[in-house]
Amino acid sequence: MSLSLRVPSEKNEMLKKAAAKTGKTKSAYILESVDEKLGLIKGREQMIQKLAGWLSHEEAKELRESVRACKQITCTKG
Fold first, then answer.
1. d(CA 36, CA 46)
2. Number of other CB atoms surrounding residue 49 within 10 Å
3. Using one digit for the tens of pLDDT, what is the confidence trace for 26-55?
4. DSSP three-state, residue 56
5. Rg of the chain over CA atoms, in angstroms?
6. Which pLDDT score, from 0 to 100, does residue 43 have?
């Protein structure tokens, strides 16, 4: 089944760059994102949350701070 989607040009460029970084086509990148949002595959945050369940309180705090720093780098870099 095909689906048509209108994407603003600036987001289209962001999608192209993000897909290229992962070595995927834009369509494959979008489908993976949809699968992640639907819970069909686990995203980075979901995996971290699952793993954090066995961490001590102090280790979980350290992990959260590290992830927060990585998010800031990712968001400001793109």
1. 9
2. 15
3. 999 999 889 888 878 776 666 777 776 777
4. coil
5. 16
6. 67
